Amino acid sequence: MGAAQDKAESFGPLTPAMFHVLLALAGDDLHGYAILKEVELRTGGKVRLSTGTLYGIIKRLLNDGLVVELRSRPAESNDDERRRYYRLTPQGRQVATAEAERMDEILSIARSRNLLKKIRTA
Amino acid sequence: MAAADSRAARIYRALLRLLPFDFRSDFGPEMETVFQEQHKEAGRRNGTTGVLRLWWETIVGIFRTAPGEHLAMFHQDAGFALRMMRKSPGFTLAAILTLGLGIGANSAIFSVVHAVLLKPLPYEHGQRLVTLQQQAPRAGLLNQPFSVTEINDYRAQSHSLDGLVEYHNMNFILLGRSEPERVETGVVSWNYFDVFGVKPLFGRTFRPEDEQPGAPAVLMLSYEYWIRSFGGDPTVVNKAFTMNDKPHKVVGILPPVPQYPDENDVYMPTTACPFRSRPAFIANRQARMMQAFARRKPGISVNQARADLNGVAANLQKAYPNDYPPSVDYSLATSSLEEELTHNARPTMLVLLGAAGFVLLIACANVANLNLSRMVRRERELAVRAALGAGRVRMFRQLLTESSLLALIGGGLGLLFSWGTLSLLVAFAARFTPRAREIHLDATVLLFTLGVALLTSMLSGTAPALAARETVVGGLKEGGVQSTIGRGRHRMRSLLIVAQVAVSFLLLIGAGLMLRSFAKLQHVNPGFQPENVLTMQIGLDFTKYGSNEKQLAFFETLLDRIQAQSGVKSAAVSMMIPLSGNMRMTNDFQIEGQSPTPGQALPVADFRVVSPRYFETLHVPVLDGRVFTRADRPNTPAVAVVNRTAAHHFWGAQNPVGKRFTVDGGKSWVQITGIVGDIKQYGLDKDVPDEIYVPLAQSPLLDGILVVKTAAEPMSIARSIIELLYAIDPNQPAARVQSLEQVRAESVAAPRLTANLLGLFALLALAIAATGISGVMALAVGQRRHEIGVRMAIGARPGEILQMILQQGLALAFVGVVLGLFGALWLTRLLQQLLFEVAPTDPLTYLGVAVVLGLAALVACYVPARRASRVDPIIALRVD
Question: By CB count within 10 A, which of B52, B400, B559, B703 is most buried?
């Protein structure tokens, strides 16, 4: 795990947009449009990716092996055949995890300085 | 709605073209579908606002993504290009070397053009500086200097100037260092440096009180002199040195700026100069020795200043009709200093820049051709890549990246070339302009070089990249490697060859004309024999040798001792030597029997002081009468000798020997005793002036030039002559010790160097073009082995094959020569003002160049043609 962890960390820090794409794919295999929608939904419309930005990110993630394109499309998707589906690789998941942990560390510092409310434990 | 959707799709597709081809082919269709869905939804949910917002975000997104993607693509292409370059080192080396020479020539010449012609003057108020000169064309007096009273009048009466300053140059002897040193001294108004906007490097510039009569003498050192003589030691400020028997305190050091009009060692205010401060000199309106510079007030144009100053000139004419008679057409010429500093350099530098540009064009054409030849060998590779899905644009881009890399490396090499030749170029440019020292490889030159390199990559890379398109279409067909040499590509290669020959022809003509012109200049009879003559300048100390008697005694003692020296044939002293560019001294005079008409200008001639054996020493023929002897003394009747031109000009058919003239309105008369031959005083390409020589014994001479005719090599006895000088006065230095042949060579150095430089460019062009022809013919022969084999199999003899190939190569060369001929007839007009007695259409030059180029083409074609003639038909046919 150690070496893989290092490698995962060596990717960070990711750009926010890239992180959002990884987060979107962490839930499910998605096609491009679905990624855009997912990101927009999760952020309450605050983050809206354009096609140029999205595919710039996807190209980079594909090159780095953080996502792969699915050869077979999900059974239920009898939609436009030009659509391509992307899946997070184990390495992509590690990178996303590493980024989330990094942010978590920063957040805990912010909390200890009383810049953020404590997490409600309810 | 569907129409609107499809329009949006079209616009989106157009927008995608901003992205690199690879990116588009990977993700383009998918991006389109995503965008369509976004578009639909945005319209459904938020109407026009939503659609507009989507467009805005989409456009911004693509503009943000594109540069990075292109860069990544370049990175990948460059890596591939470097691998390709390593795979064919011969091609790479040839291309880089050719481009390096082409680009280097351009960045070197551009560094000169930039520093000399394009950059503003390095003085703070450089754009506003003007130089003033008095003109009296009908008296034959152009570009005259000023007298003190004139300077004062113009300063007081003009309204358009911020400041008007005077300048003259003198030689003084500076004592207080280990040896007496003769220093070039600029004598200037106190605000001279302020008007130019020059701030001192150390210390201060002059102040008004420095120029008060009787003020303690002060000096400023030029940067060069300070470095040369004081090793850049700032503590020299406030030290005092003895000059003209007075202490002179150094008050400041000048920064390294171009000095105009002369490169001086030191500067002093006018009151420190013993000549300039004589009351009689100051009062004499005709004692013109000073140059005048001025700074226009802000917002005043050169024309406005000119009009203002000519108004003052008109006032002076009214106030002093005797000094400015109407007949001489007196006026004042005002021109910008920048123009004055650079107009000598402009034609030569622009011609050289043009020539360098042509060399680069030839280099580009050659590399394009090399690229094309290589393309033949790379057809397989390119076809495979095309088959694997690399698009046309992709291939185009890859090839352009390769040529850009070549050009950039070539550009780096070119910079090295120009860096290596910089000091030579500075020395060359210094013959045309004092701005030469401003030449550096600065940021602008680097930027220019980069620009040229990129342009080069476009020029040399586009043709092969276009040719690659054909390859992509037909490359993988059966036998593709041998047979798909498209007709179009072959035509392009031929065209490139023709262009190279044509441009080479142009350059060779230019160089040929300059060389012919220089040869003509070399063959001009200067009117004297420069062989075995030693010259040195001896400027006497004003205070020690103040009277005519003392000067005469010094020079006569020196000449007697030199004369007694073994190895000396004769020796003399003169005010100036021919072809050395010294300042001229003109005077008007009145011929006996020709009473001056009021308002009519008197005749004017150049006056020269010479000692008796001057004409003998320089082998100037005596045409009539006698020249000076030791019997002409200060107290014997005044005599003079005229040159042939003056004799014809002023006395016409009469013999002037025995005639008399006066220079002081008839108070005293001078008798002409002889006529001597003409000498080219001011340059081999200049007209001979009217000259009147007067003897040393009857005219003061403080600053003389010693000329010694020697039996052997003149420089070999220079040391012993200087020893003789020191024996008479150990504090008396000699300067500019050189042979008269050196002086003569120096006087034509500028045209010689220009001719050499153009010749170098032309030879470079010829070499590149010749290798180009050779390479193309070799390739053509290689590709036609099969055909040649068939021809030989059916009975063609090797000689016929040789002839066939030669004919084809020479046909290309011939077309190139014809095109070059028209180009040359059209372009060489620009050389006109650089040529001496050679017409830009000189038939001999054209013929000679055509022959040279024809021979070069013949040699270039011969090697591949001979190889073709040795093709063994059996082998050639079996291989295919």
Answer: B559
